[in-house]
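This protein record is not my work; I was only asked to verify it. Take the sequence as given and treat only the tokens as open to question. I have pasted the whole thing underneath without changing anything:
***
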Amino acid sequence: MRIKLTIPNNVNNWYKNPLKSPVLAVTILILIAGLAYGWNLGTVGLIDETEPLFAEASRQMLVTGDWITPIFNGETRFDKPALIYWCQAIAYIIIGVNEWSVRLPSAMAAVGVIGLTFYTVHWYLSQKDQLEQVSQPTRRNFTAMLAAAMLALSPEMIVWGRTGVSDMMLTGCMASALLCFFLGYASQQQQQAQFPLSLFPNSWYLACYVLIAGAILSKGPVGIVLPVLIIGAFIIYVGNIRKVLKEMRIFTGMLIIFGLSAPWYLLVSWRNGWDYINSFFGYHNVERFTEVVNGHSAPWYFYFLVVLLGFAPYSVYLPAAMARTRFWQRSHWRNCQERSQQLGLFACIWFIAIFGFFNIAVTKLPSYVLPLMPAVAILIALLWSDFLPENKSDIPCASSVLKISAWTNVILVTVLAVALFQITHLMDHNSVAPGFLLMIQKAGLPTLGGIIWFLGALLIGALIISRRWHSIINANLLIFAATLIIVLMPALFLMDQQRQQPLRDLSALVVAQKHIPLSDEELVMVGFKKPSVVFYTQKPVNYIYQPKDAVEYIQNRTSQPEKPPSILVIASQQDFEKMDLPPDSYDILGTRQRYQLIRVSF
């Protein structure tokens, strides 16, 4: 007896082309996000100088119960608003005080905006299919996955998505707010038909307002200035300003934004007065825009390099992607386009507004342009959507601009390969981790990285010659993923071993001293300011920069008998020798590479 197995057409079609279903695209994206933002997230120590400042201020909130004023090392910290501290403190409550908790909010913000980018691009292409009365699920799913994957596997996003500071929180809130605005703007007619008399904005606009409030609580006024600039420029450009502002219920929206964000600012200002206002609004906002703060100046082309390398290797396609939108043809966008088909224009204005804003600002840092990265991913993904049709035989001929971009891609990947081969000669040997270069060289990481990128350049060149345009961007993703797994992650562990592990070991020795009667003795760090010591010892640290000042401080302590008769000192061996203390006045408790922990008795 023969049994004939009949496979339903939809299952058979999925087997032949699994990307006709979004299940595989979402599964791949989850794996990519786990690799980029979950894998070993908390298995390396906090990185001095900035990350421990946030981590310890959040721990202080949890310990003291003061959720208004951030405190680090006994002093107020007015650099950033409270949202990142709240999120880290909540993570401490859930999974404990550790590196995972410090970085989890940043990782979740990154994954959130990546997921919303996937949804937005998928929705946009679904609407496009409806307008064109076609069904192209492969292009829809693959393009959405491509946008999200490029965003996830980009250097700038990974660096800040794995670091426990406020930059990714700002990007997650701001970029998500902008995507929610577009979804609300593009779907307004549908929602207005369902709720014609609603006094509140549609659900996407409402989400936009809540997220803008989150951006304000992440990094201050820039959290509303940039969204207003981008959204305002967009609706003015397409000529719908009055209509859009009316349907957005803009006054209701402003009440929501300030109702959520203003209370904390009022409370922290009430508690701390002009100290907070001058420090946060004056120094950390106005002065950073108008003056060079902390020596963070850069030439006019700085952000061109940041975008090129921060979104490498895909960034070379950005000019072609922007040209594809023809954003200069205002009449075309005002008269000939459905709202749902204006995603490319919106992403283009998004990129130009943020890029231009921070080019005008005098203080420059790579993280400032992080919120434009989702726009870059969307633009490049939409460019490549033209080369991902259902039938590969229908792939259009590549334009000359795309051909030039593809060969530029080969050049960039080759240059990065050469840089990796020569990285031990390019990096500073007098860094805070002087043994790091020798360790990565012994591990063969520069060679492995150079080989990966050189083979990648050959692969991309072969794909160009064979006109397999649809596979070029996949090769770029593969190159970066392989580099992350084989080179960057092992290098991160080696850097941690050289740079941060010695301080963690000495901090553990400090904690071990608590079992003796001198548990309240003061901890002094000479020659360095490493905030991670405060976090890992969970006690205040007195930072003294010059060895001669440390000697003077110790001499003054001898005349204070009411205090403990000894102090703990962490210093480099060179700085300790410069202190020239009497041999019978100290004991060396531990040495870790360049650092020593010493008990100085009076």
Q: What stands out?
A: The radius of gyration is 27 Å. The CA atoms of residues 48 and 530 lie 6 Å apart. The mean pLDDT is 86.
